[in-house]
Amino acid sequence: MKTLAELATSQQLTYQGNGEVALTAVATLEHAKGNEISFLANPSYTKFLAGTKAGAVILTAKMAADYEGNALISDNPYVTFAYVAQLFVKQQRPVAKIHPTAVIEAGVEVGENVSIGAFSVLHQSVCVGAGTTIESHVSIADDVVIGEACVIKSGVKIEPGCVIGDRVILHPGAVIGADGFGLARDKSGWVKIPQTGAVVIGNDCEVGANTTIDCGAIEHTVLGQDVRLDNQIQIGHNVIIGDHTVIAGCTAVAGSTEIGRNCLIGGGVGIVGHIKICDGVTIQAMALVTNSIKEPGSYSSVSPLQPTKQWRKNAVRARQLDQIARKVNQLEKKLND
Amino acid sequence: MKTLAELATSQQLTYQGNGEVALTAVATLEHAKGNEISFLANPSYTKFLAGTKAGAVILTAKMAADYEGNALISDNPYVTFAYVAQLFVKQQRPVAKIHPTAVIEAGVEVGENVSIGAFSVLHQSVCVGAGTTIESHVSIADDVVIGEACVIKSGVKIEPGCVIGDRVILHPGAVIGADGFGLARDKSGWVKIPQTGAVVIGNDCEVGANTTIDCGAIEHTVLGQDVRLDNQIQIGHNVIIGDHTVIAGCTAVAGSTEIGRNCLIGGGVGIVGHIKICDGVTIQAMALVTNSIKEPGSYSSVSPLQPTKQWRKNAVRARQLDQIARKVNQLEKKLND
Amino acid sequence: MKTLAELATSQQLTYQGNGEVALTAVATLEHAKGNEISFLANPSYTKFLAGTKAGAVILTAKMAADYEGNALISDNPYVTFAYVAQLFVKQQRPVAKIHPTAVIEAGVEVGENVSIGAFSVLHQSVCVGAGTTIESHVSIADDVVIGEACVIKSGVKIEPGCVIGDRVILHPGAVIGADGFGLARDKSGWVKIPQTGAVVIGNDCEVGANTTIDCGAIEHTVLGQDVRLDNQIQIGHNVIIGDHTVIAGCTAVAGSTEIGRNCLIGGGVGIVGHIKICDGVTIQAMALVTNSIKEPGSYSSVSPLQPTKQWRKNAVRARQLDQIARKVNQLEKKLND
């Protein structure tokens, strides 16, 4: 429990209204009760502000001026909400212990206050930093190094030699360091190219559930600091992703591509291999990036949604687009003559 | 074994031909033997009807009129095939037992006739309804409630507090309730928003292999009744999916979007966040839905497939489409003047 | 360690320069040291050749003519690199042993020199060929047959009755033989169609991390010989894939589709069900294939990437494309009259 005044102090912010209101959790504007604090960041939820029963609302000064109730005043209500929510979430970290069924092979080094769940396997010479939690059914191969205060969720697999920074979260089912997709075509069939690099993940990164990051072919696949990957993403071998870049679910990045810092890559995006995307690029959902991008900004490529009946007619024309354009140019010429 | 006449009785249907033919399994028209029953639902397989060796075929009355052989007559041969196939599949359910390696923590409640496979972990206060099968390597976190007669396949992970209805099937590798992708951008980097909601799955739902359904940020992510999700799907936090909606593989639904009842969402579709799709909407494969849909019907968005050489020419023009359209309007004006 | 001359002999190739240079590993042109061998296959890396410190470089005769340093001469440097890299990778195969925690049920047959990792489960009557490695947390259901010299990585799940050839690699988290997505719509809801076929995988195939291959509905889902699937791919029930076909990550193939031999399917591609793609087809990344393809060659369908501002204007016109085309035809007619 925190009072509104205490919250304001802890966040170095001001408030309006009753500073003594007791708050115990965060909630949405629509469903908050009197002991809960809510927030308004997405304008499409403004309609719920007037009727909210929240004990307090996190608002900008401008929004607060039009609101009669208790408010915590922030330049960035969404960030403030994130910090306040973190305050209220009770620490769910289990008491640090190594489950008796866990298999710890020779040469493993484990820091203080590390938890290892049931049926997890740490192969030879794995090193785990202090305060890290490894849940159940985790497989960590030889020579992997994991930093401090990480959370390795259930069923994660980490292949040999990968290096994970501090405060990294690997969500359930993520696979770090599986073989890159490297094949050379000989006359009789495909020849597998050994994938001997690893994956190196910087501090404060997050890797979503069932996301896969392949190891490098020779050198490493690298995530910088504070890179955030959603679920079901595929990162190919030798990809390099810059600090603070965020990638939404189901996106695929092919091998040896380099993505800059502070990029926002939408969901279901495809990025081909061996290209370079500069810092500060936004790619809209489901776009396909086939060439390097040298200018920051927002990029899109998808055809717009249409009723299927209308789409069928337009799709026929899309196949004739070059002919149509040529005809227009001819008509123009004819008309000008 | 069932005779054709017995099958007709059990399905409350009529038949033509020899009611005494003994049938022991279902099979395709092309490969069926004399003791097998087949069906014709997809017109592209009509060519196999005349030559089939099936002991009987499930047909509409109209199709049966043109067929000399034994037939089970149904208004909906595909549905009848489904029920008949269920009859013939021998119950593969293992004898209910809890494997000695399973870890059952404090406060777990398990109904009658529950199976738990090797190396599965049920954390504190999990509740499992009667007749449910949990296979091997399953991880079920604190306070999860699972209904009756469910099948939780190998390697499924269910995060804290999720609620699963009755007769639900979770296929191998599915992840239920991993953290939603919630981040707020502060000056120094991304701040994680605690994801404290759960996933609530109604009765008779099916979740495909390696599909991920994120927990809600504050409130829950919800699947109604009889929702069927194929493999490799990503469902974001706070998504709500209505009863009987079916989603094909590799589709991604971003956070806080609401999908109505009886929708058919194709494979590889992307649906952005914070929108609403009404009941009875069909989305064709790989379409991107960027706005709410308020009218039932079928929607598409993908560019049509073309030989790459032709595609290259048309793609150049696609980038100039607005210019072309403007030029056409100018020509029209010029010509009318 | 091998000298350049020894390598040339082992690969039945010639070399130029100092045959006595000792080589211990492969490396990239950019980072190779004097005891490492590199290669040049992708022209975009030519810029690194002049400055490389590699002890030797694998080059075509033509490229070698312009290069002063040591070179291994090959008609196909990439294939030669693959074989040389295989030579240098030290065999990481663990000493064959069955971990004491592994669960081996009744009727399991295991060949010579088989490894089984911690917490893996081989259900009844599984058969594993000589020299196969099964890592940790693997679940293999009843009656599965696995050939010789396979590698089944951590967390793989194989469902009942599947058949895996020799020298097959299944990467972490792959799911082989989960239920196909078969549903028939009855008045009250969806009726599940039992999926009683299996998955049959030929020799020398590779299945990527978290890729899913569904079992057939009645007959089998089949991969031929030397089929290579990247990560996060979804293969529907009863799909048939021909020899030497390669599919990149995140592609989805819907049920009952047949893909020929020697096809190259890009990443993020969608292929609808019940169609046939002939031998020798290349599908570019993220294309959607909605009809059978009867001619070998390269096919594409995606809209080209554009700055979002420009894209918005063009997207409006894409919805009007049929109208634009009609107007152009009218103008042409008017002008010709």
From TrEMBL, chains A, B, C:
Every UDP-3-O-[3-hydroxymyristoyl] glucosamine N-acyltransferase non-repeat region domain range: 21-87
Record EC number: 2.3.1.191
Keywords assigned by UniProt, alphabetized: Acyltransferase, Lipid A biosynthesis, Lipid biosynthesis, Lipid metabolism, Repeat, Transferase
CC annotations in GO: membrane
Segments forming domain Mannose-1-phosphate guanyltransferase C-terminal: 94-176
Active site feature: 237 (proton acceptor)
Class in the EC hierarchy, top level: transferase
Pathway assigned to this chain's UniProt record: Bacterial outer membrane biogenesis; LPS lipid A biosynthesis
Transmembrane segments: none
A GO MF label: N-acyltransferase activity
Pfam family, one: GMPPB_C
Domain of life: Bacteria
Quaternary state and interactors: Homotrimer.
Function per UniProt: Catalyzes the N-acylation of UDP-3-O-acylglucosamine using 3-hydroxyacyl-ACP as the acyl donor. Is involved in the biosynthesis of lipid A, a phosphorylated glycolipid that anchors the lipopolysaccharide to the outer membrane of the cell.
Matches recorded under NCBIfam families: lipid_A_lpxD (TIGR01853), PRK00892.1 (NF002060)
Family per record: Belongs to the transferase hexapeptide repeat family. LpxD subfamily.
Protein name per Swiss-Prot or TrEMBL: UDP-3-O-acylglucosamine N-acyltransferase
Gene this protein is translated from: lpxD
